[in-house]
Specification:
- The structure holds two protein chains of two kinds.
- Helices cover 34% and strands 27% of the residues of chain A.
- Chain A has a six-stranded mixed sheet, sandwiched between helices. Chain A has a four-stranded antiparallel sheet with strand order 2-1-4-5, with helices on one face.
- Chain A contains eleven helices and 14 strands.
- By secondary structure, chain B is α/β, with parallel strands linked by helices.
- Chain B is 66% helix and 8% strand.
- In chain B, strands 2-1-3-4-5 form a five-stranded mixed sheet, sandwiched between helices.
- In chain B, helix 3 runs antiparallel to helix 8.
- Chain B starts with a helix and ends in a 5-residue tail after the last helix.
- The chains are: A alpha/beta, B alpha/beta.
- The structure holds adenosine-5'-triphosphate and magnesium ion (MG).
- The site of adenosine-5'-triphosphate has 16 residues of chain A, from strand 2 and helix 1.
Chain lengths: 331, 376
């Protein structure tokens, strides 16, 4: 059997009697960029923390580069770089000092340290900021510092938990470009979580969608998009439609399914965007209904996400937890 | 073991903590200001000598020895000005005046006084005290004992309005209160530094995710706990050294600057710092809520500082408080510093304190390493 870069089998994490991760299994191949998507509280961070030895595994196994995380955590740690969701760099220290401390924590010999840090600074384009205190960096630069920090020991596998959350669109693109370029330069396998579907669509080779601690879908972005009914999505809002308007819409040409979204807004999945749109406008004119807004889009990963996880935005329905990890504070 | 001490990983943790400390020393400066302010304010508030207290005198003896006593008292009035003698003719009226608070004390010279002195028949002077005010009482006893000693040592026998009377015996030269406080202030500076450096900063780092970063590296539990302890102890030692030097200058303790004493003081500072930081770690190793170290700060301070003998002698405590004093590392630290700073004695006196502090540090360190969780 060829060795997978990451191999997770039936992994479970329980906090008390709450199951945060519920029997997830997947493989990640060498050189892949693997995306982990899911609503808030789905269990993505918990999953990553188990794979990176930060949390005890309740049951199941995680094998990183052939090292069982439970049996040989040190070997696993040496083969992976981890960028946790919280910032772990130290604002009081300079960029260079942050990297130097981590080189020492990974036991990089003093002779190689300087050179490898210089290389890293080049890689994440922070060379001119090497002596700046980390707290003075912008959000995007700070993320790049975190990325460099995760790579000081030349890991083979790179875990990133929401590296682009909280960044402006330009910095976000910059971070993603950096990740892909580093991946090629250093031959990395990347496992990444994000809430931005467009990013995941463009950059991930394969995507897993997690909800309520369970794996609900796993495939390439293209395959995921074609796995849901309809090739286009129409969103339309009407002014005081008559009763039974949803049924009227359902009968329009090529319509696959309809989701009412409140405020007389409907989300229509269709196999033929233009045909359904034409029919919709005709029907509205016929019934004297005013169309307030109308958008047509081909299916995106957002639609896949909504299809598999149900709601677009989830109000955290957790009963007020007795314990909230301090790591989650300030999120 | 050698390998462990060469551990670059442990030293990396120490390096990071110290760099951070020198970048933003505000917290630590605050940690040193608190004990200094306490030393200066308490030292001056309680350490001042009593002046112009009123003392009634009734003399039933008109002999030359009685006159000598009264003259000696007048001499105190014009020199040290501790008290101001007021002559009464009626003993009962004077005692009543002490009770009312019009007088702070009264002195009774008995009729046989001069004769007893000449006959060496244990001459007595009666001292009437209002012992609701400890400090005043002690001052009077002290002054009169000295005075009477100077007058070829007739006995002072305090006869007290309420009840007790103590015979004060001081082994060492008179020590001002500020000097008495200094050992406690030095210890307190190390404690506050450990509370901030080992308690508050540690939990804040944990909450901010700094430890999450450490835990994904191959660092071992022992290296991480040792690194954090060494860093915290070094910071506390810094505070201890600064307070020892500054406090000695302020309180006027010259013996600090003798070479041998410097060595003993350094040993005490090191042992205390390690004992304190490891104690703090045992308490904080499983804590993740940043409010907790802040909340227990005051409680711990009261629980450890006050029973330590730093501001009041342990011998005056009830049993249960003596038990706290007995296990409290503060006690041993304060005792050690007192021995060196106030009594000028060295290793011969402080080795039991050093031994206790060292043992305490090792037990607490082992315990915190055991309790430390290498996961989130
Ligand atoms: N230490 C803990 N104790 C108890 N429950 C926890 C703990 N850590 C996480 N949880 C719960 O487990 C669930 C999954 O949390 P997790 O952080 O893995 O979600 P996530 O998918 O990363 O969400 P987000 O997108 O918000 O980061 C949540 O309901 C959370 O409340
Ligand atoms: Mg998360």
């Amino acid at each position: 059997m060829a060795q997978h870069a990451i191999q997770v089998v039936d992994i479970v994490k329980r906090f008390g009697n709450f199951t945060a991760v519920d029997g997830v299994s997947f493989f990640v191949e060498e050189g892949e960029i693997f995306g982990l998507l899911g609503p808030n509280g789905a269990g993505k961070s918990t999953l990553i923390r188990m794979m990176t030895t930060l949390l005890d595994i309740t049951s199941g196994t995680a094998i990183i580069e052939g090292a069982d995380v439970r049996k040989d955590p040190d070997r696993a740690r040496r083969s992976m770089g981890v960028i946790p969701q919280a910032m772990t760099s130290d604002g009081d220290l300079t960029v260079w000092e942050n990297l130097s401390i981590y080189s020492k924590l990974y036991g990089i010999p003093a002779a190689d340290r300087e050179k490898s840090i210089d290389e890293l600074l080049e890689l994440v384009d922070l060379n001119q900021w090497r002596d700046a205190p980390a707290r003075n960096l912008s959000g995007g630069m700070r993320r790049r510092l975190e990325i460099a920090r995760g790579l000081v020991h030349r890991p083979r596998i790179f875990f990133l938990d929401e590296p682009t959350t909280g960044l402006d669109p330009v910095s976000r693109v910059a971070v993603w470009e950096m990740i892909t370029s580093i991946k090629h330069k250093r031959n990395l396998t990347v496992l990444i979580t994000t809430h931005y579907m467009d990013e995941a669509d463009r950059l991930c080779d394969r995507i897993a969608i997690v909800d309520h601690g369970k794996l609900v879908a796993l495939d390439t972005p293209r395959a995921l998009k074609s796995s849901i009914p309809g090739s286009s999505v129409i969103e339309a809002q009407f002014l005081q439609p008559p009763a039974g308007w949803q049924q009227t819409l359902e009968k329009l040409a090529a319509v696959n399914s309809i989701q009412p979204e409140g405020a007389d807004m409907y989300r229509i999945l269709t196999d033929d965007g233009s045909k359904t749109t034409t029919a919709l406008v005709e029907a509205a004119v016929r019934s004297n209904v005013v169309v307030k807004t109308l958008t047509v889009q081909s299916t995106t990963l957002d639609d896949v996400f909504v299809h598999y996880t149900g709601r677009q935005l989830r109000d955290q329905m957790v009963d007020s937890p007795l314990y909230v990890s301090p790591v989650a504070w300030g999120k | 073991m050698l390998n462990f001490f060469q551990s670059g990983r442990m030293m990396a943790i120490v390096e990071r903590d110290l760099r951070k400390f020198f970048r933003s020393p505000a917290l630590m400066v605050a940690a040193m200001v608190f004990p200094l302010v306490q030393l200066i304010v308490l030292g001056n508030a309680f350490g001042g000598k009593i002046k112009d207290a009123k003392m009634g005198i009734v003399s039933h003896d008109t002999g030359p020895q009685a006159i000598r006593v009264i003259e000696a008292l007048r001499a105190v009035q014009s020199n040290a000005r501790t008290f101001q003698p007021i002559v009464y003719s009626d003993e009962q009226a004077m005692v009543a005046a002490v009770r009312r608070g019009d007088l702070n004390a009264g002195l009774v010279i008995p009729p046989q006084f001069s004769r007893d002195v000449y006959a060496h028949a244990r001459p007595h002077i009666g001292l009437v005290l209002d012992n609701t005010d400890n400090f005043m009482t002690a001052t009077f006893e002290d002054q009169l004992t000295q005075l009477v000693e100077a007058l070829n040592q007739p006995e002072v026998q305090p006869r007290v309005v309420q009840q007790t009377a103590l015979q004060v015996v001081e082994l060492y030269p008179y020590i001002e209160y500020m000097k008495y406080l200094l050992p406690g202030s030095i210890t307190l500076a190390m404690f506050v530094s450990v509370m901030i450096g080992g308690g508050i900063v540690y939990i804040d780092d944990k909450a901010r995710g700094v430890h999450e970063g450490y835990l994904v590296t191959p660092i071992t539990k022992l290296e991480l706990v040792a690194g954090l302890n060494v860093a915290g102890a070094l910071k506390a030692m810094g505070a201890g050294i600064v307070l020892t030097l500054l406090g000695s200058l302020i309180a006027g303790v010259g013996s600090t600057f003798q070479l041998a004493n410097l060595l003993w003081l350094f040993l005490l500072i090191a042992a205390t710092s390690f004992a304190f930081i490891s104690m703090m770690f045992v308490m904080m190793v499983r804590v993740s809520d940043p409010l907790i170290p802040r909340a227990v700060f005051g409680i711990l301070n009261t629980l450890l500082y006050f029973p330590s003998g730093a501001i009041y002698p342990i011998q005056a405590f009830p049993k249960w408080l003596q038990w706290i004093a007995w296990i409290d590392p503060f006690t041993y630290s304060v005792r050690g510093f007192k021995a060196v700073l106030l009594k000028g004695v060295g290793i011969a006196a402080i080795w039991p304190d050093l031994l206790y502090l060292g043992g305490f540090a090792m037990v607490a360190f082992a315990l915190s390493t055991l309790l430390f969780k290498r996961t989130l």
